[in-house]
């Protein structure tokens, strides 16, 4: 599925340049020409990135600020396009991740989009729960070891299934074999939710450096496989971890 960008601007030069860069990146583009229109659209749909023409569209700074207060696009990567009135520091205070002076050039837009990749990838690792078929064991009550199936995993925790209900708030030690991982992961965490069918969510506690690195590398490989055709990796999961 193609990634999506929303651009709030009515500057022909901005729309032409940004349009060409995003098209090359296989990112679908939607254009809004007014702040009210952009706020309405952002409330209805989720976007991977937003570009706001701060100084040449009335109310544009409000759009940038409201972005971080909403739910649908709170983690969206935001670009502020500034034209002399809005400073870079103000743009960042309003919630922008990147700022570009106008007139924008294809080279600078492309460079900024590529620079955003690592930020979006990390956001995906932290918050996106990867569905996975994996097995392992869990130790609860200090000595009881149970086999588990892994339902989903992120950098922050894991959802599992096992033979009995686990005690919410209890400590757990996990050993998980993820597909194509270099080694089994030894993980410690807290059981944050559970149900009578043996499903549970575990939030990871502080992980050893090697374990943390192995999990991050596995999640990064997984994210790149899912979105290998895009410059942007989709950022920013009912029970959740």
Characterise the protein shown here:
This protein is an alpha/beta fold and 241 residues long. It folds into two domains: 3-127, Rossmann fold (3-Layer(aba) Sandwich); 130-223, predicted glycosyltransferase like domains (Thrombin, subunit H, Beta Barrel). Helices cover 32% and strands 32% of the residues. The chain is built from six helices and eleven strands. The chain has helices spanning 12-24, 35-44, 60-67, 88-93, 106-127, 209-226; strands at residues 3-8, 27-32, 49-53, 77-82, 98-101, 130-140, 144-153, 157-161, 171-177, 185-194, 199-204. The strands form two sheets. A six-stranded antiparallel barrel has the order 6-7-8-11-10-9. Strand 9 (171-177) and strand 10 (185-194) form a beta hairpin. Helix 2 (35-44) packs parallel to helix 3 and helix 5 (106-127) packs across helix 6. It starts with a strand and ends in a 15-residue tail after the last helix. The model is unreliable at 225-241 (pLDDT under 50).
SSE layout and pairing:
Blueprint: E1 3-8, H1 12-24, E2 27-32, H2 35-44, E3 49-53, H3 60-67, E4 77-82, H4 88-93, E5 98-101, H5 106-127, E6 130-140, E7 144-153, E8 157-161, E9 171-177, E10 185-194, E11 199-204, H6 209-226
Parallel strand pairs: 1-2, 1-3, 3-4, 4-5
Antiparallel strand pairs: 6-7, 6-9, 7-8, 8-11, 9-10, 10-11
Strand order of the largest sheet: 6-7-8-11-10-9
Number of helices: 6
CATH topology of the largest domain: Rossmann fold
The helix-and-strand class reads: alpha/beta
Please report the first level of CATH classification, the CATH class of the largest domain: Alpha Beta
CATH superfamily of the largest domain: Response regulator
Give start-end ranges of low-pLDDT stretches: 225-241
């Amino acid at each position: 599925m193609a990634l999506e960008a929303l651009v709030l601007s009515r500057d022909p030069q901005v729309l032409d340049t940004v349009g060409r860069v995003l098209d090359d990146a296989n990112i679908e583009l939607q254009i809004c020409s007014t702040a009210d229109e952009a706020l309405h659209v952002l409330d209805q749909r989720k976007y991977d990135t937003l570009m706001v023409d701060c100084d040449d569209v009335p109310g544009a700074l409000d759009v940038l600020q409201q972005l971080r207060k909403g739910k649908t696009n709170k983690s969206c990567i935001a670009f502020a396009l500034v034209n002399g009135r809005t400073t870079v520091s103000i743009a960042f205070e309003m919630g922008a991740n990147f700022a570009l002076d106008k007139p924008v050039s294809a080279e600078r837009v492309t460079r900024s989009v590529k620079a955003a990749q690592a930020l979006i990838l990390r956001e995906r690792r932290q918050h996106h729960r990867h569905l996975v078929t994996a097995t392992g064991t869990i130790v609860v009550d200090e000595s009881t070891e149970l086999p588990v199936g892994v339902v989903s995993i992120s950098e922050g925790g894991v959802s599992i299934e096992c033979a009995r209900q686990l005690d919410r708030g209890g400590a757990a030690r996990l050993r998980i074999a993820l597909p194509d991982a270099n080694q089994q992961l030894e993980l410690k965490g807290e059981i944050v939710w559970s149900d009578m069918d043996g499903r549970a969510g575990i939030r990871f506690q502080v992980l050893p450096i090697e374990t943390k690195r192995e999990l991050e590398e596995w999640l990064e490989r997984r994210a790149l496989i899912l979105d290998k055709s895009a410059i942007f990796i989709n950022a920013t999961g009912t029970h959740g971890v």
